Request: fold
Amino acid sequence: MDMGFAARPRVAGLRLPLASWPRHPVAHCHLWYSIRLARFNFDKTILENPMDAISTPKPILELVLGTFGMIVIIIVHGAGIRIINQRFSASWIHMDEFTAHWRINALLAFTIGSLAALHFAETLLWAIPLSAAGLIPSMRDSYYYVLENYTTLGEGSISLPDRWRLIGPVIAMSGLFTFGWTGSVLVSIMTEFGKVDRIRAKQKSDSGSDEGSTL
Reply:
């Protein structure tokens, strides 16, 4: 029986030409085994790391996905800033020139800690998808990569695959937006602290003048 006219084999979905199909039965079996092994390895790669099986995306796709993530981060930051600002305002209305210094400093420390926690949560929202998609398998490495881009540290010890590397600059852009927003909130808070300090300084100056006139 002539084995050369058997059905043409497929490798990863591709049909081989008849000219490449051997006529000897032993070579026929050997090639068939090689084809099946190649197909198995191909399917295994897809199952273990689906992102590796995706063809190289266009830069537009990278930027669209990155921009979507950045918008989500900015929305989360806005909601968090609003909550923190509301709690600060609710506590600040009870502060006056007679309030103990430690209470005012404790409020400032709590506010700064809340802002820092908000930034850590936002970087976690970036790191989870990168790790889940297999772009950076280790969650710790993924979080470190996001932090160094989010803060524009730029050490570059960990990087994304080349076909997804445009995500990094978009993460940095989201950090610039959110840190700028946080900075404006801190300026507003410190302005309120400055008003209290000026009132206290004036009262201290007035009390010193009254004591001098009495003497």
In short: The beta strands are 10-11, 14-15. The chain has two domains: 3-48, 58-214. The chain is about 70% helix and 0% strand. Residues 167-214 form the longest helix (48 residues).
